[in-house]
Amino acid sequence: MSEEMDQDFIEPDGEDLGYAGEGRFETQAPQAHPQAETVNLLKREREFVLPGDKIVDSLEYLPGRNCFREGDGIYSKKIGLVSVEGRVLSVIPLNGVYMPARGDMVIGEITDVQSNGWVIDIKSPYEAYLPLSGVRGFIDPGKMDMSKIYDVGDIIYGKISMVTASKSVHISMYDRICRKFSGGRVVLANPAKVPRIIGRNGSMIDLIKSRTDTRVVVGQNGVVWLEGEREAFVIEVMRFIEERSHMEGLTNEVEKMLGRGVPHERRPQMEGPADEEVNFQERGVSNEEG
Amino acid sequence: MKRGDGRKPEDIRPMEITAGVLQKANGSAMVKMGRTIAVAGVFGPRQMFPRRLQQFSRAVLQCRYIMTPFSTDERARPGPSRRSKELSMVINKALSAAVFLEEFPKAAIGVYIDVIQADAGTRTAAINAASVALADAGIPMRDLVAAVAVGKIDGKYVVDLAGPEEELSDCDLPVAVMPRDGRVTLLQMDGDLPPEDVKQLLKIAKEGCAKIYEMEKEALRKRWMK
């Protein structure tokens, strides 16, 4: 999912083996496979597919996320929308749980304080672990009460630093934007709809934040932290986006909704570090749907 | 030949599938096959408890099929029975074949199916409901699973036995298939049947499943393509 993950697929000597990866085939494909352009897709880009639906019947394409190959055909694994990137076919899911991936920024709740770290619920099939090595500064667990740093019930914003094949998930708080939340409230969104809530390069979330004077942080695991006087309205807007995530021109619709909800005297926009902290471009949160 | 309810031998009962009927489940579906009604809710993938039952390299599918006390003519004792435990197990196996369990090591996927009203073919209705609910929950699958029971009445092969027919039939043969490639994931049989009949029955069962498959897809389209 993240860019770092792609690096793992490249051979140590730098030779590209041609695994499914972002945009890697756009330069190679035409020479190696002259017939690639003549193959017809059975489903259009952004067309709705169900598990088992055949997207293409050709070896010229490669199965990406949420797709699998059987014989010559590529099929969808989930309900979703088809996405074509060069020769890689993938499906953007419409529902599902959050699966941790390295580099993701997530919001979680501390559920246990152990001798060498913390256990964190990230609303995923797998719980995450924040080891002492993931926290800034020197901490001697023998001499210090670990719950002084993070206690059970605390909500933190962290970066997933490692996911093993057996799904042991580690979190790191090293990044400058990682922090513990105080105040505000937490709501859950459908993780499959998070890219739409954030928007391309954070356009949607920036719009919501600027129009409602509310501090919003969206974790890629679908956990959303809010603080401000108009939390309830922001949640309403989020549900609106979730329901209409497949719509084109959603930003305009949301803009209309926000326009309706803005009181006559528009309050001044928030300034200072709070707003800066919540810059999604910097966090590498990208909109998968483009 | 006409059947008791006016159907032709190869006809399935009037059927209705609705996806997304439950608020709290990750995915859900209700299936009506004639007078049989089943509701399925899918939870997860989620953490597997107790932990000792975790599988290292794949998810555990937890299936629970139960008939509600008011589903039958006489009140049924609530809770799991010997029969419902057996059916939970065969439904589990019928669905496991379609799900990419290896994508969620150590996790569990809960599939809870309640039969609201029973009029023969509850296990097939349960499989249809569960299959739609799994897809609705966004769980990766090879294909949807469709199931139907077939039998033989007065020498005629009939599809989707209704309650009164079940007693007339020489046999009851519930079949679940993944219709895209025709792979069979459930095949059981009650009663007596010569081997050549089984082949014929399997053929018409697959035809019945193909019809159900289309309805399952339609239900999911209706739910997600607003």
Morphology call of chain B: globular
Instruction: Tell me the number of helical segments of chain A per DSSP (H or I, 4 or more residues long).
Output: 7
Overall pLDDT level of chain B? 95
Number of DSSP strand runs of chain B: 10
The CATH architecture of chain B can be given as 2-Layer Sandwich
The percent of residues in helical segments of chain A reads: 10-25%
The strand line-up of the biggest sheet of chain A is 8-9-10-12-11
Terminal residue distance of chain A:
14 Å
Helix content of chain B: 25-40%
Total number of domains of chain B? 1
Please state the oligomeric state of the protein chains shown: heterodimer
Strand content of chain B: 25-35%
Tertiary shape of chain A: flat
CATH-assigned homologous superfamily of chain B: GHMP Kinase, N-terminal domain
Tell me about the largest β-sheet of chain B: 5 strands, mixed
CATH superfamily of the largest domain in chain A: K Homology domain, type 1
Output the CATH class name of chain B.
Answer: Alpha Beta
Low-pLDDT ranges of chain A: 1-32, 263-290
Tally of individual domains of chain A: 3
- Note the gap between the termini of chain B: 42 Å
List the uncertain runs of chain B.
Answer: none
Topology diagram in text:
The complex is a heterodimer of chains A (290) and B (226).
Chain A lengths: L2 H5 L17 H8 L15 E2 L4 E4 L4 E2 L3 E4 L2 E4 L3 E6 L2 E6 L11 E9 L3 E5 L6 E4 L23 E9 L5 E4 L6 E2 L4 E4 L5 H5 L4 H10 L2 E4 L4 E5 L3 H13 L6 H12 L11 H5 L13
Parallel strand pairs in A: 3-7, 10-12
Antiparallel strand pairs in A: 1-6, 2-5, 4-5, 6-7, 8-9, 8-11, 9-10, 11-12, 11-13, 14-16, 15-16
Helix pairs in contact in A: 4-6, 5-6
Chain B lengths: L14 E5 L7 E7 L2 E12 L12 E8 L14 H15 L10 E11 L4 H15 L9 E8 L2 E4 L3 H6 L2 E8 L4 E5 L2 E2 L3 H30 L2
Parallel strand pairs in B: 4-5
Antiparallel strand pairs in B: 1-2, 2-3, 3-5, 6-7, 6-8, 8-9, 8-10
Helix pairs in contact in B: 1-2, 2-4
